[in-house]
């Protein structure tokens, strides 16, 4: 790497570290956050390969200083409760699982309820939903599916920020130039066939009271909600994929510009710093080590999948 590249990346990451060095006052800080990433069913399961996690979500969180634990599907509520008390946040990733009847949906429902209860009692625990995970959150909050089909499969878009942005926790530490780029350049990759329209979202009392809408988008026909954060809970969602810009290369419509990659890292740092406010710990170091994603090896799948790498689980 030449000296110019070294200087650029050193300055870039120094700026990010400074921007996120101070986490909200009033919280003890956990400098060793561990975040769960929810697995989901494989379309055509084989022995040993019944569930998967795209490696880009793991890299995304690791890039901001977190470690990752895979949250397996089809476990008991007791097992999920034990894990909940051990990790410092959870990410519901994108994918193709059912948000109604899958192992992904059942696990998400349990963790969502545990998070609401814990946060209500002052036990900080953040939740993030990306794409499918965003859709899952809207179902869990509203109690019904309000999704409709949109022409948004494989397109990068700028964000149409709302007036609620001024009170946003998610974007408050973003540099002004990056916010301008997000508003004017197609930096957010969309890979979904279903969306929740702004009309349906704001027409539902549960969603309207629970979430602040930070951005919307349109497919030319329907305006849909693309970024939210809960008013009173550390629960966040994007219909778009912040992790893809830096870590996925299989599709030509994924943006890889400097601004796009900065978006990846600023959002990763935001969520990981939310997890730093959680003081959950594993019962022992051995339990922690056995749970980490390091016990598994990613498989290169870029030749036949939209994901460069996947972790497969039995």
From TrEMBL:
Swiss-Prot/TrEMBL GO biological process terms: tetrahydrofolylpolyglutamate metabolic process
Protein's recorded name: folate gamma-glutamyl hydrolase
Molecular function as annotated in GO: gamma-glutamyl-peptidase activity
Active-site residue list: 131, 241
Cell location: Secreted, Extracellular space
Keyword Phosphoprotein in annotation: no
Species this protein is from: Ictalurus punctatus (Channel catfish)
Superkingdom in the source lineage: Eukaryota
UniProt family annotation: Belongs to the peptidase C26 family.
